[in-house]
Write a structure and sequence with these properties.
The complex is a heterodimer of chains A (about 260) and B (about 300). Chain A contains ten helices and no strands. By secondary structure, chain A is mainly alpha-helical. In chain A, helix 5 packs across helix 10 and helix 6 packs antiparallel against helix 9. Chain A is globular. The termini of chain A are close together. The relative contact order of chain A is 0.15. Chain B is globular, with a radius of gyration of 22 Å. In chain B, helix 4 packs across helix 5 and helix 9 crosses helix 11. Helices cover about 30% and strands about 30% of the residues of chain B. Chain B starts with a strand and ends in a 9-residue tail after the last helix. The chains are: A mainly alpha (about 260), B alpha/beta (about 300). Chains A and B meet through helix 1 and helix 4 of A and helix 3 and helix 4 of B.
Chain lengths: ~260, ~300
């Protein structure tokens, strides 16, 4: 198995299509979650907490937090899809085994899963953007530019999640990842307050985490400003896509082709 | 008669740690014929099937399909193969026709082709009325038939079936056998693994008996029986649980026999003398029957229980 086999074929789109087909069947509960959860967050944190917090970084707290919730929701949705859903397909439903009996290869399956995780992240992000714009918390001419950023962020969180899935023996294993990676990012990467309010060492740690860079790009784009250091932030997110993808591919090849 | 080999397996070796699961598996299947790999659990049947799909990197040996090495064909080789796996892996979230549709997309078949092929295959596997049903509405036998239909979506030249009828009722098995014979007549090359000797006997042109990673014997079912079992079989079962024929009287009459618990099994051309000796003894119940592939199998692989493969 050479590294060239890690490059997916267009067959990966059939994997995306399959997952989309299942998602469409569960559209209603899924959409309810996509729209309902952010609505609750925005009401509780934006209005409730925001009333006491006052403006942050020169904008109303609900505006500040709306873009943060968009970014963290991409992380949560893509991670969940790449962990629990992908693991169910691999282990419980043996969907990967069925796919591997066709011309699909491990890289096609992996790329399809990562892309689908990113699409699910995008769906949840768009839902929040729609809800938040009713509150006037999303504005400005650059909102459309957030879509490629959201997709790239989704790809990186999806790839990371699939590394964990490729190593997992059971669902319990995912708790490590949530407690040690997802929750710290949710709390310390600028979703709820600006990074500069953290002590210097914590800021340095936050700089190596992908959610920080997703927030750094998305907050300006969703509040009518142009982000700074764009190539730097995009570069980090790209690294977080490519390197975990290759690691996950290696692990899945070892796991599925024995 | 002698079609060129469509599938050739040459000296396959596979090791997991220091456990050798394939130790020189060698056989070939002529185009359009059916080969059955029979063997106890852990004999290496499923590993062989996985190796043909390119899912198990080999430690030695070569597999050729239609004259080309499968390792160089890669994923393109799988486009010409259909697989019926041992464990059903239909998509539980989809209906019958959505399963076929999705699977056809994995082969990147055009939509019109999948539609046409699905209708034909559902008809062929007697599932026409169930196209819109969810998988959960199907019985075990129907799910298996759908799995076979799915494996045929790409009109494969080679169909691999890993224990296709395990756990099915006789009606379902007979329908599946009928369809597999139809496929063979249409020119599909078939490789099946099975525990059921009657299945191998009914379907296969050639049977390979595999144990501990290599093939002990291979030939047509008839030839295997003739060369390993002399004549007919007489089973004498002792009802009180004691050793049957403790004086070994039968050994003067038959060339080959074995004791299995309460049963004495005699093999030979003329078993009338033995039968006459025991027929009026109330301690015995008897069964006289033609030799079968199962007799050959048990004689070659022994009667010890095997650890399960999984």
């Amino acid at each position: 198995m050479s590294w060239q086999d890690a490059i997916p074929n267009p067959g990966a789109l059939a994997v995306v299509q399959r997952n989309f087909g299942v998602w469409r069947k569960l559209l209603l509960p899924s959409m309810l979650g996509n729209f309902g959860d952010p609505l609750l967050y925005l009401l509780a944190l934006g209005y409730g907490l925001g009333h006491f917090v006052g403006p942050m970084d020169g904008m109303p707290y609900i505006t500040f937090i709306a873009s943060g919730i968009v970014a963290s929701s991409v992380m949560n949705t893509a991670s969940f899809e790449g962990l629990y859903s992908a693991f169910t397909r691999m282990s419980a439903q043996h969907t990967y085994a069925a796919m591997l009996a066709t011309p699909l290869r491990v890289s096609d399956i992996l790329a399809g899963e990562v892309l689908w995780a990113a699409i699910k992240g995008l769906i949840s992000a768009v839902a929040i953007i729609i809800v938040a714009s009713f509150f006037g918390a999303i504005q400005g001419p650059w909102v459309w530019l957030s879509i490629p950023v959201i997709l790239l962020s989704g790809l990186s969180f999806g790839s990371l999640a699939l590394v964990i899935t490729a190593m997992a023996r059971s669902y319990d294993f995912f708790m490590y990842y949530f407690t040690l990676a997802v929750t710290p990012m949710f709390l310390f990467c600028g979703v709820f307050y600006p990074l500069h309010s953290l002590p210097a060492f914590a800021q340095d740690i936050a700089q190596i985490l992908p959610l920080t860079h997703a927030v750094a790009l998305l907050r300006p784009l969703l509040t009518g400003q142009l982000p700074r250091h764009v190539p730097y932030h995009l570069g980090i997110l790209l690294l977080y896509t490519v390197i975990p993808y290759l690691i996950a591919w290696r692990l899945l090849v070892r796991r599925l082709l024995r | 008669m002698l079609n060129p080999a469509f599938l050739e397996l040459k000296h396959l070796h596979k090791r997991y740690g220091n456990r050798e699961v394939l130790r020189g598996v060698d056989f070939s299947i002529p185009a359009g014929s059916c080969y059955a790999l029979v063997g106890p659990n852990g004999a290496g049947k499923s590993t062989t099937v996985r190796a043909i799909q390119g899912l198990t990197p080999l430690d030695g040996g070569e597999i050729r399909m239609d004259g080309q090495a499968l390792s160089t064909l890669g994923a393109a080789g799988r486009a010409r193969i259909g697989v019926v796996p041992q464990m059903d892996n239909l998509d539980p979230d989809f209906t019958v026709e959505e399963n076929l549709w999705t699977y056809g997309r994995y082969f990147r078949l055009p939509k019109s082709r999948i539609r046409q092929r699905s209708a034909e295959l559902l008809d062929f596997m007697a599932l026409s009325g169930y196209a819109r049903q969810p998988i959960s509405a199907l019985s075990g036998g129907m799910q298996r038939r759908l799995t076979i239909a799915r494996a045929l979506i790409n009109a494969p030249q080679l169909l691999l079936l890993d224990e296709p009828t395990t756990g099915l009722d006789p009606q379902a098995r007979h329908l599946i056998w009928q369809r597999l014979r139809d496929l063979r007549r249409q020119g599909t090359t078939l490789l099946l693994t099975t525990h059921y000797m009657d299945e191998a006997e009914r379907l296969a042109d050639q049977v390979g008996i595999v144990d501990q990673g290599h093939i002990l014997a291979q030939d047509s079912p008839r030839a295997l029986i003739e060369s390993h079992i002399p004549g007919e079989v007489l089973e004498l079962r002792r009802l009180d649980g004691n050793t049957p024929d403790p004086e070994n009287w039968h050994q003067q009459q038959v060339a080959l026999s074995e004791r299995v618990g309460d049963t004495l099994i005699c093999y030979g051309q003329n078993l009338q003398q033995v039968l006459a000796h025991f027929v009026h003894n109330p301690d015995y119940r008897w069964l006289q029957r033609p030799a079968s592939l199962e007799d050959v199998f048990l004689r070659l692989t022994g009667r010890n229980l095997r650890e399960d493969e999984h």
